[in-house]
C-alpha cells in the first residue's frame, strides 16, 4: 500500500487514490458495525442457551467470569507487547523535531511539486535514498531484537 501511494503521488493520481481510500474506510466501518451487531446477537443467543440449561443467575456469573478472564488476558498481552517506557524528555524532543520537519516539508511542498512536474527524474534519487534508508532501519530493527 505505501508503494501504491508513492506511485499515485508521482503520477498525480493521489486525489483519486484518497477518494477510493475514504470510500473503503466508510464501507469497512459499516461492515465493522454489522460484525459488532452480529457478535452481540451471538452472545445473546449463547447466554440464552446457557441460561436455559443452568439458570439465568448462574449463566450471568459464568459470562462475568469468562469476560473477566478475557479482559485479564488482553491486559497482560497488552503489557507484554507494549514498548518499554522511554525517557519523556527524549520523546518530547523527538515529537518536536518531527513537527518542525513536517512544517518545513509542507512549506516547501508547492515548490517541490512544481519542480517534480517539470522534471520527473528528480524524484528517483530521493525515492531510492528513502527506500534504502527504510530498508536499513528495518534490518537494524531486526538485528537489535
- Mean pLDDT across residues: 81
User: Which structural class do you get from the secondary structure elements?
Assistant: mainly alpha
Number of helices: 5
Strand content bin: under 5%
One letter per element, helices H and strands E, the order comes to: HHHHH
End-to-end Cα distance, whole Å, is 26 Å
Overall shape: it is elongated
Number of strands: 0
Largest sheet: none
Q: Report the oligomer.
A: single chain
Compute the CA-based radius of gyration. Answer: 25 Å
Low-confidence runs (pLDDT<50, min 5 residues)?
Answer: none
Overall helicity: over 70%
Protein described:
89% of the residues lie in helices and 0% in strands. By secondary structure, the protein is mainly alpha-helical. The protein has a domain at 1-82. The mean pLDDT is 81.
Question: What's the gist of this structure?
Answer:
With 145 residues, the protein is mainly alpha-helical.
Any descriptors?
145 residues; mainly alpha
What is the secondary structure topology, with strand pairs?
Layout: H1 2-11, H2 14-54, H3 56-81, H4 88-118, H5 124-144
Helix pairs in contact: 2-3
